Amino acid sequence: MKTDNAVSKLAQLIYDVPDFPKPGVVYKDFTPMLADPSALALAVELMANPYRGKGIDLVVGAESRGFIFGIAIAQALSAGFVPVRKPGKLPREVHGVEYDLEYGSDRLELHEDALCKGNRVLLVDDLLATGGTMRASCQLVERTGAEIYGITVLIELDFLNGRKLLDGYGDLHSVLRYEAND
Q1: The whole model's pTM is what?
Q2: Cα–Cα distance, 107 to 120 (Å, whole number)
Q3: Domains of the chain with CATH codes
């Protein structure tokens, strides 16, 4: 299957949900894609392929939807997986970062000993919107001395300019990109 056809197949399984989670927001619901085994496998392959053979040691995914793709991509790359969690979810000493969301603020945490200097890291999430969650994840990885090799997401909302917040954090790959009127 050619990449354009593959991306089109995935796009057909992502539904727009208006006014969720608040009025004026159009939510990109990818859960129908998760229920289709071939589409899920295809999404993982398209997210992982640019990083094959690049020596990725660990994949880092943010709670909670970053876990869905992160573990599968780690397996596809023969790498380990490290979770970035919300406050109070990790049992040992943590690094933490406060950050802004598209509609609020939050905090993310990473075990202090989860990554080591020299580890080659790929960050994964389902969606890149304003970039706040991914930037906070990158900042956590930076604190460990690990090397951010790249970032991969299933969906990027171009019109929110999240990519700008991630300049200098390695290669950014998105499978599906949407403009404001898509």
Answers
A1: 0.94
A2: 24
A3: 53-178 (3.40.50.2020)
